[in-house]
Specification:
- The complex is a heterodimer of chains A (about 300) and B (about 325).
- By secondary structure, chain A is α/β, with parallel strands linked by helices.
- Chain A has a single domain, classed as LigB-like (Protocatechuate 4,5-dioxygenase, Chain B).
- The mean pLDDT of chain A is about 95.
- Chain B is about 35% helix and about 20% strand.
- The C terminus of chain B is likely disordered.
- Classes of the chains: A alpha/beta (about 300), B alpha/beta (about 325).
- At the A-B interface, strand 2 and strand 4 of A face strand 2 of B.
- The complex binds fe (ii) ion (FE2).
- Fe (ii) ion (FE2) binds next to strand 2 of chain A.
């Protein structure tokens, strides 16, 4: 572990369609595919290269598929080893995971959140099954699994109230995550595990990886995705936060989970450009793989 | 008219799926009362001795059509993603895979997009686990669990239920229908001491009381008709609509001819937990909100949810309803 003050070294949008791991055919996943969703997977390969060059201790991920209606929860058991079966696409994702969690950092984020007035809870049940969003984003970002992770739940405040209320929780959550990381002395990589537009087809083709069926759900979704990506390229994080409620409602975005807001807040609303590795659709949803590098601040672009 | 016993669904139950009555009933007298009511449901089911439990869970959302659990022996150590601190629920169930496959086949025949799921480790939802542990603890009965399709609206849900009746008739099986659902479903936003539990808001409480009043009178169809309003006013919008009553009324018979029994009603962490039993009655409930005969002059209640006046020979809100699904079903 680095002895200097902790910091977030990079943040990324790392969406978690199970189709990506399915198409990768890693040994951990039971089903096998012929191919599929290459543009997004290739984007992930480029992001992996960038992460490999970095010196970091922990991956911190906020997943839309650990859904908590009371407060924000943080994984706090040192190791998990089990089988994750996607409840929506069990035909694609049955993944045997074996991962380590940074429990100290979990406790620090939890304490920091409580101090800021957020409802926080540690998840300490060893039989708990880590959600598939966490596993997929972490696998695609770091298939070697050679770093511990930390998973933060998605408080379902968008559904309880509105996307504005969600931001009221996710912005301070991002701030306390950053503070806790700084105090921890650790170098962390942050992943927001969400798609952009999230309308998806309700039928699956006979061969799930048959790419002749794959396209954006509708033009409205695509326009929204391109608008957001354009703002990411221009470093307009504050503006993204400003229009987030409209984006969430009009494109049924998975940013309803708070993950994207949390990320931008933790990164202190970057005014530098994100590196866009690629964009593609999965069963109609829009997915961008993108990184904000806190050291270069997009300078190499 | 054929006798009541001809309908393959002999009774319906509306049961809450939150884990507290299973894992920590002693922490709150209300949770214990719900647990006790589950015991009464268990006894009622044993009296009926069905061939299978047909479970529709609002806590199992699906997005690629409707999913039907078909793993004959699902087994896991379940932990709720929210109430994980209450402990682990090990389970091992018996699923009627043969029936699940039939249900799937006949759903598709009715134009629905459905699939069975038979995978080791598939995450069965907390509600289905809790209900089975409480009403079928010895696995005396096989079950089939159905997902709640996030995008389905009334028409699709009603047809999905009809496919269930088709499958029961095809396999000549009798069943009880179980809906796993809270009434109002808004939980407290902060963790609370167990003894501080109450319904989240007065508005939720009022809607819960209205649902209980109607269900207690056996007016299942009337509650189903209110589903969209209930969704708007008493449900957190996790899905596109409040569907369980549509499914239940369609699988049992779309009318108000039931004996309704509210076995218990308590808050569980802010949500409205009702334990409700519906069995078949010979006569429709009184005081139905029938369409008026004449908008200018009240001429008495009108039968719109039972057989026609010609077939009955008189107009009466106390008319007899056939419980044979073939007698009541419209052409598809
Ligand atoms: Fe997702």
């Amino acid at each position: 572990m680095n002895v200097a003050a902790g910091k977030i070294i990079a943040g990324a949008l790392a969406p978690h369609p199970p189709h990506l791991v399915y198409a990768e055919n890693p040994p951990q996943n039971e089903p096998t595919a012929e191919c599929g969703w290459e543009p997004i997977r290739w984007a992930y390969y480029e992001m992996q290269k960038s992460f490999k060059k970095k010196d970091y201790d922990v991956i911190v991920v906020l997943s839309p598929h650990w859904q908590t209606y009371i407060g924000t929860h943080v994984l706090a058991v040192p190791e998990f080893k089990s089988l994750s079966v996607d409840p929506v696409f069990p035909n694609l994702f049955r993944y045997h995971y074996d991962l380590k969690v940074d429990v100290d950092l979990a406790k620090q984020i939890c304490d920091e959140g409580k101090e800021a007035g957020l409802e926080m809870q540690l998840m300490q049940n060893p039989d708990f099954r880590v959600d598939y969003g966490t596993i997929i984003s972490c696998h695609m970002a770091n298939p070697d699994w050679d770093k511990p992770i930390l998973s933060i739940s998605s408080n379902r405040s968008t559904h309880y109230y509105s996307p504005d209320y969600m931001q009221g929780i996710s912005i301070p959550l991002g701030e306390v995550t950053r503070k806790a990381i700084e105090k921890s002395g650790k170098r962390c990589l942050l992943l927001a595990s969400n798609s952009l537009s999230h309308r998806h087809f309700t039928k699956e083709p006979p061969i799930p990886e048959d790419m002749s069926y794959e396209h954006i759900y509708n033009h409205n979704q695509y326009l929204w995705d391109m608008r957001i990506i354009d703002m990411m390229r221009k470093g307009q994080s504050q503006e993204i936060l400003d229009i987030m409620p409209d984006f969430v409602e009009q494109s049924v975005s998975e940013a309803d989970s708070g993950a994207f807001t949390w990320l931008l807040s933790a990164l202190e609303r970057p005014t530098y450009p994100a590196k866009i590795y690629g964009y593609g659709t999965v069963i109609g949803t829009g997915n961008v793989v993108a990184e904000w590098d806190c050291d270069t601040k997009g300078a190499e672009q | 008219m054929r006798p009541v016993a001809n309908h393959p669904v002999e009774a319906g139950f509306i049961l809450p799926g939150l884990p507290h009555p299973l894992l920590c009933p002693e922490d709150n007298p209300g949770w214990q009362k719900i647990r006790n009511a589950f015991n009464r449901v268990r006894a009622k089911i044993e009296e009926i001795n069905p061939d299978l439990l047909l479970i529709y869970s609002t806590m199992w959302p699906s997005v690629i059509g409707h999913q039907i659990q078909s793993n004959p022996n699902p087994e896991w150590k379940h932990v709720d993603e929210l109430f994980h601190n209450l402990g682990t629920i090990p389970y091992k169930f018996r699923v009627d895979a043969d029936f699940a496959n039939e249900y799937n086949k006949l759903s598709q025949k009715r134009g629905l997009h459905t699939r069975t799921v038979n995978y080791h480790g598939f995450p069965i939802d907390t509600g289905s686990v809790v209900v089975q542990k409480l009403v079928n603890p010895e696995n005396k009965y096989k079950a089939v669990i159905l997902s709640s399709n996030v995008y389905a609206d009334r028409a699709e849900t009603v047809v999905f239920a009809k496919a269930g009746v088709d499958a029961l008739q095809e396999q000549n099986k009798k069943s009880v229908a179980i809906v796993v659902s809270s009434l109002s479903n808004r939980l407290h936003e902060k963790f609370i001491p167990a003894n501080m539990d109450k319904i989240h808001s007065q508005k939720d409480e009022e809607w819960n009381r209205k649902m209980l009043e109607l269900l207690g009178e056996g007016r299942l169809e009337d509650v189903a008709q209110l589903s969209r309003q209930i969704q708007r006013e008493a449900r957190v919008r996790k899905v596109t609509s409040f569907k369980p009553m549509w499914w239940l009324v369609s699988v049992m018979g779309a009318h108000n001819c039931y004996n309704g029994e509210v076995l218990e009603y308590q808050p569980i962490y802010g949500a409205g937990a009702g334990v409700i039993a519906l069995t078949r009655a010979e006569h429709a409930a009184r005081n139905l909100e029938f369409d008026e005969e004449d908008p200018e002059k009240f001429a008495g209640d009108r039968n719109v949810l039972s057989l026609s006046a010609e077939s009955l020979g008189e107009m009466s809100s106390q008319s007899t309803v056939s419980h044979n699904p073939e007698d009541n079903e419209e052409d598809l």
